[in-house]
Specification:
By secondary structure, the protein is of the alpha+beta class. The protein has 19 helices and 23 strands. α1 runs antiparallel to α2, α4 runs antiparallel to α8 (209-221) and α12 (280-290) packs across α16. 59% of the residues are buried. The structure holds 6-diazenyl-5-OXO-L-norleucine.
């Protein structure tokens, strides 16, 4: 079915309709009581089965977390980390930070040679790129604090999927093909994902017996089996053999953190999101700036809307890259960055219809900062408890390395730190001293799992992968619903754009702008770049649940990720 996703009338000297786009977005899945949306259908089935059998949203989130580690190995993981926002129907929302941490031996110059230059690839595809994984500790803590089912019961579906396998679809194998060259370098990965020298194809059953054994160990021994037991030991031993720096103490030290989410308000909507080291502060700063502009009146992707949204992104990312880091290590001027006065001062610096050169945007708060593998899932249970999880190995399949006898990939999250002054990371982010490497520190992340409510009622459960574009993706899902009233499917699926201060350009997805809009943007001083800031075509899939005013749950599996599924009842 064709639907109009936006009509905008532009008043820019002349007046004419710029965008009238009809897009064949699939309808959302509608349900009354429960909803699970993930990037992989088998994992969605697992979460839905938990909810149907009486588990709550956290039970389902834990089961999905383990299942995705089996069925979506590019992104779902045991060897990475992430964030969870949990909003119980009654009680206080919580933020669970199970981000990886830098090993004890890591220092700011870990990836530099004697001349102080970055050793190419060392922060991404070497054993030194691995942060101490947080996923197993995080999922276990969530289960103990807020879940109701036993560990063994929640891990059982993942074990079954690993042992008996599942049949690969085109969506599943897309990433094996894209990353075949890298996966081929690890003999353990080759054993699992290759047959006769080629990556497994569509219709083949993917079995992962080694991973099944690892999951069985975790089911029996919990997080201890991972951090104090044979799994951690296998990783440390492999790291040592290959020139890595992980130690047993790093694993014994690892702790997830439970804290308050960050909150901000946007046009009557309460946004509950990930505080640093997550991306919520940047999301809230953009929303605070955009409050001052009637975006709905300007129209979806009209030149004026794109201009003001882009400028909000530019200023907020300048602050992100300068001031933000792990709150346990750096003092951040969050209160001032998220104050009304600061948002107003930025609006004063934004010209009505002229790009601000990024070189002229120095972060606005004078203060000494001292003083391509992620997945999102969203769940609502029959009681109205909601969970949003984003977790990751960083780039697809992380380092691409597995320790022997473990069956899962290890992350390369260390590249999210400032690896060398002035040097862009894998997502073209140039970051500052606040995000320098230090032992036990968490690298700054763009991951922004978010839950929004209106009048105390659930409205949006969302988040996304996509590196530096994650936070602007979450922003656009919110704007598309709140300002442009696009409806659930179009809010998620409509083409997006992005700006991150440096590089000084608007990155956009195909179809995001009409030719006229692009022309007017160029004439206003913008450089336009098709694709992500780091040159890939990849844009994150925002697996999302929307609650309609009449209480329907609408689950949207992002069209960008056809392997996913929304399921509810
Ligand atoms: O935490 C971050 O910001 C990144 N490690 C996320 C990486 C990511 O989203 C890759 N996905 N495509």
């Amino acid at each position: 079915m064709l639907r109009f996703v936006g009509i905008s009338i532009l008043t820019f000297g002349l007046s004419f309709p710029t965008i009238v786009r009809a897009a064949p977005y699939p309808q959302p899945v509608r349900a009354r009581h429960t909803m699970v949306v993930t990037a992989e259908r088998e994992a969605t089935h697992v979460g839905f089965a938990v909810l149907r059998a009486g588990g709550n949203a956290v039970d389902a989130a834990v089961a999905v977390g383990y299942a995705l580690a089996v069925t979506d190995p590019c992104c779902g993981n045991l060897g990475g980390g992430g964030f969870m926002i949990y909003r119980p129907a009654h009680g206080t929302a919580r933020f669970l930070d199970f981000r990886e941490v830098a090993p004890r031996a890591a220092r700011a110059d870990l990836y530099l040679n004697r001349q102080g230059q970055l050793i190419p690839g060392s922060s991404l595809y070497s054993w030194k790129a691995i942060g101490v994984p947080g996923t197993v500790a995080g999922l276990e803590l969530a289960r103990r604090l807020w879940g109701t089912w036993s560990r063994a019961r929640l891990i059982a579906p993942a074990i079954r999927l690993a042992q008996s396998g599942f049949v690969l679809t085109p969506g599943d194998v897309r990433l094996f093909d894209d990353d075949a060259g890298r996966l081929a370098q690890d003999p353990h990965a080759v054993r699992v994902f290759f047959s006769h020298g080629h990556p497994l194809g569509v219709g083949v059953r993917l079995r992962q017996p080694t991973l099944a054994k690892t999951l069985e160990r975790i089911a029996r021994g919990g997080a201890r089996a991972f951090y104090a037991g044979s799994i951690g030991r296998a990783i440390v031993a492999a790291s040592r053999r290959h020139g890595g720096i992980l130690t047993r103490a790093d694993f014994l030290d690892y702790r997830p953190v439970v804290t308050h989410p960050l909150r901000c308000r946007y046009r009557g909507v309460d946004v509950i999101t990930a505080p640093p080291p997550g991306g919520g502060a940047t999301l809230c700063e953009m929303l605070d700036i955009l409050k001052g502009y009637p975006l709905g009146r300007y129209g979806f992707h009209s030149v004026r809307s794109v201009h003001f949204i882009t400028e909000a992104m530019r200023f907020a990312y300048a602050d992100r890259n300068t001031f933000l880091g792990d709150p346990a290590y750096v003092h951040m001027p969050l209160r001032r960055l998220l104050s009304r006065a600061y948002a107003r001062s930025i609006r004063h610096r934004i010209a009505p219809m002229r790009a601000t050169p990024s070189s002229e945007v120095r972060p606005g708060v004078s203060l000494n900062p001292e003083g391509h593998d992620t997945t999102q899932y969203s769940i609502v249970d029959r009681w109205g408890n909601a969970v949003s999880v984003t977790y990751t190995l960083n780039t697809f399949f992380g380092t691409g390395f597995m320790a022997p006898h473990t069956g899962f990939f290890l992350n390369n999250e260390m590249d999210d730190f400032t690896t060398a002054p002035g040097h862009p990371n894998a997502y073209a982010l140039v970051q500052g001293a606040a995000n320098d490497i230090a032992p036990g520190k968490r690298p700054l992340s763009s991951m922004t799992p978010t839950i929004a409510t209106r009048g105390g009622h659930l409205l949006i459960i969302t988040g996304s992968p996509g590196g530096s574009t994650i936070t602007t993706t979450v922003l656009q899902v919110i704007l598309n619903l709140v300002d442009y009233h696009l409806g659930a499917a179009a809010a998620v699926d409509a083409p997006r754009f992005h700006m991150q201060w440096e590089p000084d350009q608007i990155d956009y997805e195909p179809g995001a702008f009409s030719a006229q809009t692009m022309d007017l943007l160029r004439r206003s001083g913008y450089r336009l770049h098709a694709g992500s800031p780091w040159g890939s075509r990849y844009w994150g899939d925002a697996e999302t649940v929307i609650v309609t005013p009449s209480g329907w749950l609408e689950g949207v599996n992002d069209v960008r990720y056809p392997a996913g599924l929304a399921q509810g009842n």
